[in-house]
Structures are given as structure tokens and as C-alpha cells.
Amino acid sequence: MSHDQIGDVIIVKIPDIIQNHSTAIGKAMLEQNSNARVICADNGVKGEFRVRDLTVIAFNDSNETLTKVKESGHEFWVDPGAAYYSPRLANERLATVSSAKKLSATLGRKISVCDPYAGVGPALMPLANGEITEEIFASDLNPNAATLLAKNLVGHWAECRDARTLVNELPECCDLLLVNLPHDSIDHLPDLLGLLRKGHEVVIRGWAIISIDSLEDVRNRITAILSNSEIISLELEANRSYSPNDTYACFEAHIIRN
Question: With helix as H, strand as E and coil as C, how does 184-205 read?
């Protein structure tokens, strides 16, 4: 059975054929994992905010799914039963830090970062210490995620907002824009460009779930969306398989907005 451990919460997918043994499975996993507090059955990702539907099948002391995780040396709060978080994307988040450092070096100063789909803020935690960032602006439409986001990003702007209207509140606020809504990133991109500063190089780093056969079409679509800006470079890479026909792709555009 496949499972993830998030802090002291273990999430396990239990095949239908052995669902009747869920409680016994949970107790056994709890006994075998001394650093676990709660065992949850994963019923799949559901709802507008793509949150895991979890059923607690065993626990010690407390059955709440709020927990603290440590990733790349940084600790932060997550609640897999209330807000989306995947430990499997840690390498993607490290690559974002690398992009931020390169942009800071190019501009010769600290940068401002905006993440309108921040979740609980895992991509921003390595940037929040102020070494290369001047300001961080983070939001999420899921109010539960936004509450944890504010808890994790103390001292930074963190609110519950609709990303597509955020430009009305924070025009030209950032040098680095993160667009992590994989099923809709490309569709939302036109509404987000106004968050980027003008007159110097800025970076858009985003993720999209797309058909393996449509990489070039998506590249052309992003190019068209950015047509009013000077495009310094545009990379689109298929990072890993999402389904037999789809890939989880990362795109990074370096542009100068006019």
C-alpha cells in the first residue's frame, strides 16, 4: 500500500478489497512507526481546493491532522485534511529558490516575490529569511490554507484572495511570480501579468499539467500571452509523468514588461 508521511501524520491508500480491515491496518502502522501520531485513509483529492478527503483510522493522543513538517531545513505548519500539500514537490521548490537567487544576482539587489497560489507556503519558506528577498506577497483562495500561510509567513503579506483579482490590490508588486495551479495556470496567466514590475528583467515560474503531445502548442500559447513584453527566454520542460497521456511541466519565462 502506498503512503506518505507528513509530519507525524501518515496517509495511506487502502485498496477497496481490504477496506473492512482499515482499523487494524491503522493500528499496525501506528505500532510500526514510532514517530507517527495519526494514521489516515486517503479517499482521494476532492472539492474546489483539491484537498485530500481523509478518514482517521488510528491515532495516539490526538486525531487532528494539523502537524509541523521540516523541508530543506525549514519548519512550517500543514494540515493535509484542510489544505493541499505534497512532500513530493520538494525538488521543484528547491529549483524555485535557485531561480530566485539567480534573479537577485542579475538585478544586483534583493527581490520581491509573489505567490498567488501559495497554499500553506512551502515554496516560500526557504525565501522568507530575507537573504535574497525584500518582500513576499502570498495568497490562497482556500481560507484554511490562508490561515496556515499567515501562521508560517510571519512578517510577510499573506491573505485569502482570488488570484485573478489580486492585481487590483497589488499592482507591480514583484520581480518573481510563481504560478502554481497546474490544471489552470496557463488560463490564469493573463490576469497575473500586472503583478510583475516594469522596466527590468522579471521572472515567471509556473507549473502546468498538459498533454504530452501539446508541449509546443503550450509554448506558443505562453509566447502569445507574453507578446506585449520583451521575452528574454522561455523554457518549458516536461518534468514527470502525471498520467499515461499527460505530463507535469514547468515553465520559466524571463521577460521585461513595457
Answer: CHHHHHHHHHHHECECCEEEEE
The DSSP code for 88 is G
* Strands 176-180 vs 111-115: parallel, antiparallel or unpaired: parallel
Q: How do 133-140 and 111-115 pair as beta strands?
A: parallel
CB atoms closer than 10 angstroms to residue 25: 18
d(CA 231, CA 249): 19
Report angle CA 133, 83, 148 to the nearest 5 degrees. 50
Instruction: Answer whether 0.90 is exceeded by the pTM.
Output: yes
Angle, alpha carbons 133-135-141 (nearest 5°): 120
Q: What is the H or E stretch that residue 216 is in?
A: helix 215-225
pLDDT beyond 80 at 63: yes
The pLDDT of residue 161 is above 90: yes
Measure the CA–CA gap between 228 and 14, rounded to whole angstroms.
Answer: 50
- Scored b (16 or more CB within 10 A) or e, 137-163 reads bbbbbbebbbbbbbebbeebbbeebeb
Which pLDDT score, from 0 to 100, does residue 124 have? 97
